[in-house]
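Example record for the data management plan.
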Amino acid sequence: MRKLAGLFPLAIVGLALTGFSGRALAATECNTKGGPQNGATPLSGTLVGGVVVNAGDICFLSGANISGGVRVNEGGELYVCASTINGGFIGNGAAELIFGAEELNCGGDVINGAVQISNTGPGTLPVSVALERSTINGRVQLSGNRGPIAVATDTIAGALLCKNNAGDLLDEGSPNTITGGVTCKFAAE
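Corresponding structural encoding:
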């Protein structure tokens, strides 16, 4: 009983720290009302606690340095140019997810952590998912996506895994450097 009594103050301190840290790490909601193709003003600078894009929102990140990762919820759109994401990326049910697309004059990105993209598309652009000209320090998992996917000129320090996507990946004539296993197929162009 004395041992349990001694743990009680520690438990209170732990709960207090958890409560305070939850507020300090709240994600920044991003809705820039458009992407680079329509002249939207991007969200940039240092963002702590991560970024979240909600249903119906369009988020344009350019020159951002994010800690805490990025999450795009069902129906959201994300365009990322010349940014660093620490903590990985998760997108489930997004309309479009575009990283470093040369067609949109975007610089490549750095993602430190895993990338998980599922059930995305079809969007309004020629591709629903574009991971281009970026360095990804973690595995990339693409599953159940409903539109075209471009993975081109990337350096991926991890596996590239695909399952149940609508079609094979496009590398746009620019192959990737991948250090892990690959279960994805690339379409002949």
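Summary line stored alongside the record: The CA atoms of residues 104 and 118 lie 23 Å apart.
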